[in-house]
């Protein structure tokens, strides 16, 4: 029983972390959406919604983010 309780607690903790990460990611996507829509309003009607801004955040994090194994110089 103690092993099962630890597994359930671990699963619950992982679930909470995933949900909180998604909420924080969506909150951080709003400024990206607002800046994108403000900047491209003058050039074309290329407006994005919050989920597209969230995907843009993830994409830029993958492309320009620092790898965890790299050292800061």
Give an account of the 3D structure.
By secondary structure, the protein is mainly alpha-helical. The protein has one domain (2-64). Helices cover 73% and strands 0% of the residues. The chain has two helices and no strands. The model has no long low-confidence stretch (mean pLDDT 83).
Shape type: elongated
Helix content: over 70%
Q: Which secondary-structure class do the elements indicate?
A: mainly alpha
Uncertain segments = none
Q: Which band does the percent of strand residues land in?
A: under 5%
What's the total helix number? 2
Mean pLDDT: 83
Radius of gyration: 18 Å
Query: How many structural units, i.e. domains?
Result: 1
Largest sheet: none
Give me the strand/helix succession.
HH
Distance between the termini: 48 Å
Overall number of strands? 0
List the helices and strands and how they pair.
Elements: H1 2-39, H2 50-64
What key attributes describe this structure?
about 75% helix, mainly alpha, about 70 residues, single chain
Short description:
With 73 residues, the protein is mostly helical.
